[in-house]
Design brief:
35% strand; four-stranded mixed β-sheet; 2,3-Dihydroxybiphenyl 1,2-Dioxygenase, domain 1; 127 residues; 5 helices; alpha/beta
Length: 127
Amino acid sequence: MANLAPVEIKAFVPAKDFELSRRFYRDLGFVEELLSDQLAFFYTGRASFLLQRFYNQQHAENFMMHLLVEDVDAWWEHVEAQHLARKYLVRAAPPEDRPWGIRDFILVDPSSVLWRIGQSIQERSES
């Protein structure tokens, strides 16, 4: 039987204004590799996604990404230090402990994609 183990999975994140979204994600802390005038590869650590020059309002406003990190409070401090909400006129809400075992915060990108950036509460209590 063939090996069916995947190598990776990446989402295609929509961008209403491709250049603005590229700046936003670089400021958020992702490294960018521009693949074409339609597509950019973003990564940090083992997490990655593709930003595409594509926008459909209904799709973007219902699209959500979840980024699991080791230190959610450090990520929040970075978001605050970069003034991302004010600089990009986006919504951000500070970290909270969730009943499903995650401490996370929300950040909405310039295209209305909702990001939940968090860490396991169990991991947080062990550190």
